[in-house]
Amino acid sequence: MKPENPQRIICHNPFEWFEIHPDGQVFACCPAWLKRSLGNLLTDDLDDIWNGSTARDLRRSIHDGSFRHCNRRRCPRLISGTAPVGKLSELKKGVARDVFETKQTLLPWGPQKLNLCYDRSCNLACSSCRSGVYVASEEERRRAEAISDRVQRELAPHARQLIISGTGDPFASLAYRRLLEEFVPSNYPHLESIHLHSNGLLWDPAAWQSMQAVQPFVRTAEISIDAASGKTYSANRGGDFERLMENLNFLAGLPIAITLSFVVQQNNYREMEDFVSLAQGFGFAVYFSQLVNWGTFSREEFRRRAVHLSDHPEYPRFCNLLREMVNRQNVDIGNLQSVLTGQGG
Fold this sequence. Notes:
two-stranded antiparallel ribbon; 12 strands; globular
């Protein structure tokens, strides 16, 4: 057998990531850049999802280096070459490296990173992801609880990390709140960390006090803001900026590595520098990303907002501001890197 190239680029996600959506569909990555579903947690056996034909085909595309199912122009990690993307040589010797070196597609372990995206309930109506405040219906809540029960029965024993949530807000969702407030550590014997992704408005001292058992596991968090001023925050998110600042001040005192995120668009890109200053004032990192049309904008409205597109009239000015962000400490420009490398739209 030909020796494996240690400099080969790999991605860990199809080998560990398990992202669950409200209809039960499961993905090996964000479906914005890897659209194929592995199966449905509401109807399929876990092994048929995790080691089924689709999952194995995705892993094969990583082993052969084609990444043929991935959107290279949109995936921020393929663009930047940061985790979960990396070189084979960066893996320590062991079972995981053996899987990549021998190009196995049938995995001897279960899903290790669970991204819970199965409840879209949120207290905000951010134009970048939804057209109105979303509260799950009774039927949707029952479905979310059914998924939560299966997560705790079948997936918890494998999990090393929980991510809550890739959609909705962990403090606005009844299903997520129940999971966090009734968390039993012994049900997750291999759990190392929990990552919370929130808009921050409901993450106050009272909410945090109600979920004491999870607190030692919450190591990282992302707070989506998309603004550095109250006026822009109101336009993009419709929330109470002063309340957000109060909660950020509280969160800054917790032993959690926090990142403030900012979806760049025409009405906020001039605040990028101020946003970095805001985050650094709290001791937080920064993550900038492209605007994606999740079906909330008409084509015309999206192109008016999408300042990262090369034919946008404000694109040159945006690029100049973006270049100033590149070497800033604790600032990640994610998939906006493609703008600077000429790979963007």
